Amino acid sequence: MEIKNHHIVITGANRGIGRAVSQMCAEHGGNLHLVMRKEDLELKEELLKSGAASVDIYIADLSQPTEINQLLKRLEPVPVDILFNNAGQLTGGLLEEQPIDQIYSMLMVNVNALIHLTHGLLPGMLRRNRGKIINNSSVSGVMHFPCATTYSASKAAVIAFTNCLRAELGETKVTTLLLITPGVDTRMYQEIPKLYGKNMDLGFLSGMSPKKYAEIIREAILEDLEILKPQGLPAAALLMAQHLPKTFEKLTQKRFKRSRV
C-alpha cells in the first residue's frame, strides 16, 4: 500500500517509534491523524513542513475506554486507510513487585485499546474495500524473559490477535501487518534497565534508531508484508526462543537472579 495521500491514524505519535513513523509518513505525503495524550503543536508544524498533506491531532488517554469511544466518534468522517496501533506502556520486574495499577494500565493500552480501535475502524475499511491495520508487538511476545511477565503477556496477545484477524480478513481487501519489534532506542526502551536491571544482567541490550526502524516499516507497508521480523542477532534469538525454548530459557536464567547485589 502507498502512503501518499492516504489517511493514516497513528497512536502514541508524539515520541519514539510513533513520532518517527509520523515523520516518515509526512515526508511521503500522507494525511496524518495523530493520537497522543498531550497537544504538540510544534510536531504538527514540523510534519507539515516535512510534506504531510494534512495533520490532525487527537488528544486521548488510551487507558480509558470512554476516551477511545470519543476518539472513534471524532474519526467517523475520516476514510482511514492505515491504522497504526503503536501506543504502548512498559512494565517489568519481579511480578510480585510490579504495581497492580500499572499492570492494569499497561494491559489497557497495549491490548484493550488496540483491539477497541481496530474494532471501531475496521467496519469503515471493509465498506471502502481497502485498508491496512499495523499492530506493534515485540520480540518479548515470543522471547519470554524473567521480569517481563506482564509486558510479554500483552505483546503475545497482540501477536495472537493479529494472526487471527489476518485469517478473518483473508477474502477482503483489508490487510494486517504485524511488527515483531526488536530493540529500538526510544524513551520506553531506556526504561528497561530501571525495571529489569535489579534482577537481570542486561549486557545484551542494543537498539537501532527509531528513524531507521520507521524506514523498515515503510518498506513493509509498500511491499504489503504480513509480518515484519527483526534481522541479525535478534532474529537468531527469536528463532531460538521459538524452536529451542528450553535452550533459550537456560541462557536467560544465567542472566537472572531474584536478587542481585
Structural overview:
The protein is α/β, with parallel strands linked by helices and 261 residues long. It has one domain: Rossmann fold (3-Layer(aba) Sandwich), CATH 3.40.50.720. 46% of the residues lie in helices and 15% in strands. It is built from nine helices and seven strands, in the order βαβαβαβαβαβααβαα. The chain has a seven-stranded parallel β-sheet, with helices on both faces. It is globular, with a radius of gyration of 18 Å. The mean pLDDT is 96.
CATH-assigned fold name: Rossmann fold
Q: Encode the helix/strand succession as letters.
A: EHEHEHEHEHEHHEHH
Please tally the β strands and state the result: 7
Under the CATH scheme, the architecture is 3-Layer(aba) Sandwich
